[in-house]
Amino acid sequence: MTRATRGPDAPAQGHGTGGGLRRRLLYGPAGDRLFFALVLGLAMGVVLAAALTAYHLYAGGAQALQRFGLWGFLTGMRWDPALELRFGALPFVAGTLITSFAALALSVMPALAVALFVTEYAPGWLGQIVAYLADLLAAVPSVVYGLWGIFVLVPAVRAVELAVYLWAAETAPWLLTWLGPPAGFGVLSAVLVLAIMIVPFTASVARDAIRQVPAEQREAIYALGATRWEVVRTAILPYARGGIVAGVILALARALGETMAVTMVIGNTHQIPSSLFGPGATMASVIANEFTEAVDDLHLSSLVAVGFYLFLLAVAVHLAARWLVRRLTPGGRAA
Predict the structure, then answer these.
(1) Which DSSP state fits 278?
(2) Rounded to the nearest 5°, which phi and psi values hold at 280?
(3) Longest dimension (CA), the chain
(4) How far apart are CA 268 and CA 282, in angstroms?
(5) Quick one: DSSP state of residue 80?
(6) Which of 172, 217, 257, 270 has the fewest Cβ atoms nearer than 10 Å?
């Protein structure tokens, strides 16, 4: 029986293990060892940066976390930096989750429609134009979205809210306590801005995932007499669902951390939003609003603690994304 031999350029045994790393650093051509040391150092630098970020956020918020407790600070309802110096992050956690998931619910279908139109329905030249314009939305600075929100979106939302408010006042007065003042600045405006901002992220990743569907799979379904919609439903979406979910989770992470545009249109109050029309605040917006004005050490520490929980929330979202992608990708653990 012959035994296969490994060429000089083949990967060393023990790939991904401590022995493999040691062999790559100590043996082989000097250029390979130098390049491997460079990429290893840069990769470990990313890990170190994430670890230091978490550590410094926790250290910066330690005063507030020790004063109110990890759970007490997270579930505290009162944020009063002026009189009582009591700080609880729950209104901002609620505002972050409400605006982010509502924006995600609004953005998924438009993003998936863009991805399918570009890859399956549009002629090549039109698909390129639509893909370019969709990607361009991701490059627009968030402060521009905020300005557009203030001068265009908020007046439009205010008009809709006023119409609903007047209708409720005449026909269903009991609804008024749930609607809130028709100011335009509030959760609804923040949700709409966020939805527009995250569409390109989902659309881009979904487009790439759909393009990875093997042509043989499409042709096999077409050969059975299926229509284009049936091909999309039975062959493309099931195969690409792992990538599509990854794009959705990426968009969610983007929405959770969005700061400037949301700060400019959400109304910025220290209470849990009472309705879709009411004002609120998110974890990122309260940091942006109050960080430069915080003169008390406890207030400053509380803002950093909010950032620490926002970091943990982002980590949890990414871990959930990896788990979902592994579960939904054909081949199970291939992703």
Answers:
(1) S
(2) -160, -165
(3) 91
(4) 8
(5) E
(6) 172
Residue owning tokens 């992470």: 253
Query: What is the enclosing helix (H) or strand (E) of 216?
Result: helix 215-223
The first and second tokens of residue 309, run together, are 């929980």
The confidence score (pLDDT) of residue 31 equals 78
Q: Model pTM?
A: 0.82
Please state, in angstroms and rounded to a whole number, the distance separating the CA atoms of residues 25 and 48: 20
Q: Is the dihedral of CA 191, 193, 196, 201 positive or negative?
A: negative
The DSSP output letter for 12 is P
Please name which of 80, 109, 77 lies closest in space to residue 95, comparing C-alpha atoms.
Answer: 77
Nearest to 306 by CA among 43, 138, 74, 10: 74
With a cut of 60, say whether residue 209 has pLDDT above it: yes
Question: How many other C-beta atoms lie within 10 A of the C-beta of residue 194?
Answer: 29
Question: What average pLDDT does this structure show over 53-74?
Answer: 92
Q: pLDDT tens-digit profile of 64-94?
A: 999 999 999 999 988 988 877 889 999 999 9
Q: Can you tell me the distance from the alpha carbon of 225 to that of 227, in angstroms, rounded to the nearest whole number?
A: 7
CA distance 289 to 264: 10
The whole-angstrom separation of Cα 101 and Cα 311 is: 17
Cβ pair 317, 249 in contact under 8 A = yes
Contact 192, 153 (CB under 8 A): yes
Closest by Cα among 213, 249, 251 to 323: 249
Mention every residue, 6+ apart, whose C-beta is less than 8 A from residue 111. 198, 199, 200, 201, 202, 203, 206, 247, 251
pLDDT tens digits, one per residue of 176-185: 777 777 888 9
CA distance 331 to 194: 34
Name the pLDDT band for 174 (thresholds 50, 70, 90).
confident
Total count of residues recorded for the chain? 335
